[in-house]
Fold these 2 entries.
Entry 1:
Amino acid sequence: MAPQADLIWLIAAILLGPFVGSFLGLLSLRLPQDLPVVWSRSACPACGRTLAPLDLVPILSHLWLRGQCRSCGATIPRRYLALELACPALALWAGLVHPSAAGFLGAVLAWQLLLLALLDAEHFWLPRLLTVPLIVSGLAVAAAQGLLVEHALGAALGFAGFSLLALAYRRLRGHEGLGGGDAYLVAGGGAWCGALALPSILLIAAVSGLTFVLIQRWRGKPVGGALPLPFGVFLAAGIWVTWLYGPLGLS
Ligand SMILES: [Zn+2]
């Protein structure tokens, strides 16, 4: 593909990023509360004032309004600005590693993983409402590239393998250690990266999760054992790094 077309994909993903980030912020707050989700924040949650288009420009409206509602001064959650900056940054990362339409698809993967990681970190929750679309979008991309069989196998093996692992863990430890949502997330990783990438995804997730636990222990925080670990965060990282740079040992 011509470099000019590559640039258009990159610019499109970076321009779309802040709007996606704003929407992810909304989803991360409303989904756990079972509140209705519409495309944009329509009113200030504190005073109910209908938001004008100017209040909804990603990034700029935060600077303009200094992170507060124009009417009542209520603080706009920081996560909006953070996500509006993180989403184009992830798109840039994907586009630099994979210039071309693949980079744009990478941004779509990254945005989905970001929301899942956030929900798991805050609520230990990986809703199927989000993991199933992750699997479907991964398979659709694979189908377009003529790789459907290997990637469907990845999704199936990932799901079955991780479910068995969770079962074994429950038997051994006598309590739930790996959430049911994790198996769907691993299946999403298999759908996006293929069956051969599963060991790489799991290894990166396990090593980064273990590192996190060790750092928390070193800082004197009680972790491990009966305390839950948002493993989905580390799985998301494993899927992202494996998609970007290829499976460990195979790239
Ligand atoms: Zn307000």
Entry 2:
Amino acid sequence: MNVKLLKSTKDAEKTCAVAARLCYSASTIDNIDENLTSEKVIDLLGKVISSGHHSVLEHASFTFGVEGVSRALLAQLTRHRIASFSVQSQRYVKFKSGLDFVFPPTIKKDEKLLKKYNSFLKNTKNLYKEFLDAGIPAEDARYILPNAAATQIIITMNARELRHFFSLRCCNRAQWEIKDMARRMLNLARKEAPLLFEDAGPDCARKGCHETFACGKPWKS
Ligand SMILES: Cc1cc2nc3c(=O)[nH]c(=O)nc-3n(C[C@H](O)[C@H](O)[C@H](O)COP(=O)(O)OP(=O)(O)OC[C@H]3O[C@@H](n4cnc5c(N)ncnc54)[C@H](O)[C@@H]3O)c2cc1C
């Protein structure tokens, strides 16, 4: 899996701090960012984050490029509705130079089952090629592809939605692949805008755990 932060709002922290200041001051738009020192940015963001006034975080957005993840991950990711996605098309892309698949660690470490998994994927690749060679359009040949098929995605979320996404998907109990991706995204977002994401992560990083079947291990980033 490869996860990159491709773009983000310029001065993301300051942009959100300006929005917060607007809510609580008599300043006009022309002087809204006057004397907005880094100390004031820290103070404003600290206040809105701890008070739950998270709508101001919607003014900063982050765009990630992700490759080498499965269609199983994609199905979970796209349940997040306050986000924009662009996904490599299985209709238009004919994977003539080869299909890639994701290998779950539990299967990888079981020699016998790994052999069966490899053999299944090899048969899938051969059948997919046979269908394309016979003139079946890629949009129909893809029906035989499993959840393991690898894909590439561009994801854009604003900081509020990212914090929500991280609270669900960085959790120890989240499914391993989306958890791996979410944790990489969190590290990148934190590097770019630490004030927006320093306390982001599963609920146990801030308050109590919400999980019915709690893992019992407080999360460490
Ligand atoms: C551990 C785990 C297990 C899961 N298991 C299943 C499962 O078995 N079956 C299944 O179908 N899904 C499952 N899901 C997916 C889950 O139900 C959500 O679809 C997914 O996590 C997206 O979360 P969300 O709706 O909070 O977030 P988003 O879509 O990212 O939305 C963010 C927030 O915006 C608000 N919002 C968005 N849309 C609306 C709306 N229409 N009305 C009101 N408020 C809205 C809500 O406050 C929401 O929390 C699971 C998720 C997790 C983390």
